[in-house]
């Protein structure tokens, strides 16, 4: 889906890593939440509370998922799952546009 309808967007940005990563929360009528964000070039590590699906909208991310020793590349149109209560690493070379869906 290329757009969301009938949602609430939280205006204040979530800002991480000295402004190199930003996102904004989108809340749906049923209470589910997604974030739309952008990562500038850099190396990052994120922790999760809930399980997540990260959808690549643009750019490329090289990702080390929990329990794996192999880095995987994700580009526009692909996605990856991250379990709850875990952490994952990303290497971004030029920029990465993403949508993160939080699962219950």
UniProtKB/TrEMBL annotation:
Keywords: Glycosyltransferase, Transferase
Domain of life (superkingdom): Bacteria
MF terms in GO: guanosine phosphorylase activity; purine-nucleoside phosphorylase activity; thymidine phosphorylase activity; uridine phosphorylase activity
UniProt-listed Enzyme Commission number(s): 2.4.2.1, 2.4.2.2
InterPro entries documented for this protein: Ppnp (IPR009664), RmlC-like_jellyroll (IPR014710), RmlC_Cupin_sf (IPR011051)
GO cellular component, one term: cytosol
One Pfam family here: Ppnp
Catalysis: reaction(s): a purine D-ribonucleoside + phosphate = a purine nucleobase + alpha-D-ribose 1-phosphate; cytidine + phosphate = cytosine + alpha-D-ribose 1-phosphate; adenosine + phosphate = alpha-D-ribose 1-phosphate + adenine; guanosine + phosphate = alpha-D-ribose 1-phosphate + guanine
SUPFAM superfamilies per the UniProt record, alphabetical: RmlC-like cupins
Enzyme class: transferase
Family classification: Belongs to the nucleoside phosphorylase PpnP family.
Matches recorded under HAMAP family: Nucleos_phosphorylase_PpnP
PANTHER family xref list: PYRIMIDINE/PURINE NUCLEOSIDE PHOSPHORYLASE, PYRIMIDINE_PURINE NUCLEOSIDE PHOSPHORYLASE
Record's function text: Catalyzes the phosphorolysis of diverse nucleosides, yielding D-ribose 1-phosphate and the respective free bases. Can use uridine, adenosine, guanosine, cytidine, thymidine, inosine and xanthosine as substrates. Also catalyzes the reverse reactions.
Name the record gives this protein: Pyrimidine/purine nucleoside phosphorylase
Organism lineage string: Bacteria, Pseudomonadati, Lentisphaerota, Lentisphaeria, Lentisphaerales
